[in-house]
Amino acid sequence: MKWKRSERLVDMTYYLLDHPQQLIPLTLFADMYQSAKSSISEDLTIVKETFEEKGIGLLMTVPGAAGGVKYIPKMRDDAIHKVVEDFMQELGHSDRLLPGGYLYMTDLLGNPQLMNRVGKVFASAFANTPIDVIMTVATKGIPIAHAIAKHLNVPVVVVRRDSKVTEGSTVSINYVSGSSRRIQTMVLSKRSMKSGQRVLITDDFMKVGGTMNGMKNLLEEFNCHLAGVAVLVEAIHADENLVDNYLSLVKLHEVNEKDRTIALTEGNYFSKGGNE
Amino acid sequence: MKWKRSERLVDMTYYLLDHPQQLIPLTLFADMYQSAKSSISEDLTIVKETFEEKGIGLLMTVPGAAGGVKYIPKMRDDAIHKVVEDFMQELGHSDRLLPGGYLYMTDLLGNPQLMNRVGKVFASAFANTPIDVIMTVATKGIPIAHAIAKHLNVPVVVVRRDSKVTEGSTVSINYVSGSSRRIQTMVLSKRSMKSGQRVLITDDFMKVGGTMNGMKNLLEEFNCHLAGVAVLVEAIHADENLVDNYLSLVKLHEVNEKDRTIALTEGNYFSKGGNE
Q1: Is B5-73 a CATH 3.40.50.300 domain?
Q2: What predicted TM-score, i.e. pTM, was given to this entire model?
Q3: How many Cβ atoms from other residues are within 10 Å of residue A54's Cβ?
Q4: CA spacing 20 to 30 A to A44: which of A187, A221, B151, B237?
Q5: Rounded Cα gap, residues A39 and A42, in angstroms
Q6: pLDDT tens column, B183-207
Q7: What is the topology classification, in CATH, of domain A77-266?
């Protein structure tokens, strides 16, 4: 069956969105649609222009025999600001206040559409950074890690507090939790990373950065390299941060339990040149 | 700016894929593309036919003033068999054997492309079942829960073993773990579900079903209803199952540590009429 251009455009859009950050040879499309490479090239120009016009992402074309086309999820700044604003609006509701000045945000981490958007925001920032693995810590970092991973097309590894029989041999480290100054343990399956891999670490919340720092130490045990740090909400505080280079989406300045107010601002995403 | 059909098709495909299980009024597209509703209808016919032809999913059109179009992720049987076969192939490698007859599958749960496919397989089975929430238990069920949730466009709630200050008030139950017959505890934030919601429960692995049964008891504490049970791998055993109605993707029959063999077959997905 020979495909019409209109059908090719629909299916090609689906295929590219489903295979982010992967080089797809033009011959694959030519075979799939029984069409000449020249027609496929014209199709891709239309897809590329529409993706750019609507801020869906970039299509990179690699010429030559080993070439092809690659879809790179990359949002525009205005769309990213919108995601951050919507998120702050949600997070700023006074009914999120918990005893002790904590904020309830489990529901936001359980919202797949929101997580998908947050994941694309961070994937946009790291679109041109070589990353092999995304590392997070159980439990609340997992949705964010997977959301970023889907757009960057790399695996997720989950650090645990305890060792489980289903993890096989593990590497374990002790670290000092930032705020409580307690010694804690982190465990990661030995099989989960190979020496030399470049690792993006992520979590939902960061105060002084003890957990992030623990993950940094852990990846060094695997002879891996830190490729970046992405955090959804960072709490502003008087102490020194244990982690220097990180991107945050939102800053939490103050929680006032008496007035029931929450002071939030945009994170350092833009000032750190997140979306380069 | 007036959009050409070819550009509309690309963007409309993106928009529909990004908003599964949501009714989108035709006027939204008509405004977005500055085009007549009749042109939008013709576009949607092309998208619909291509989605069906390639097994991407269904486009349901709801006529009338309050009508619109809804994308329903639904894979075809042949594509689902392929996902199950690929998964079994991966899972059957002898180097996954762990001491005690356990199987290492953490890397598969950390693979976002695989999880996305597994999520779509289960979302296909529950495409026409009313579901409000997906419930899973920390840690390993989370990627599957989110993958299904993304295609069904519903939130995820995560049951924990311990209570955390960031969860606010919680509901806690004791249950008997199926295989070890030990009493264990499950905790869920009170805010995470509302009375009357229909809940799909999911996990990566099920033996006699103690954890699943615990989640069933927990959702009853919230006056919620069980809408379905989805499990990635079920272990075949001699004891009686604690859960009756569930869908599984793969059955694990035997792990032979001496011969280093793993016996797997397709789960009950098809025999239970998963993809109706």
Answers
A1: no
A2: 0.96
A3: 16
A4: B151
A5: 5
A6: 999 999 999 999 999 999 999 999 9
A7: Rossmann fold (3.40.50)
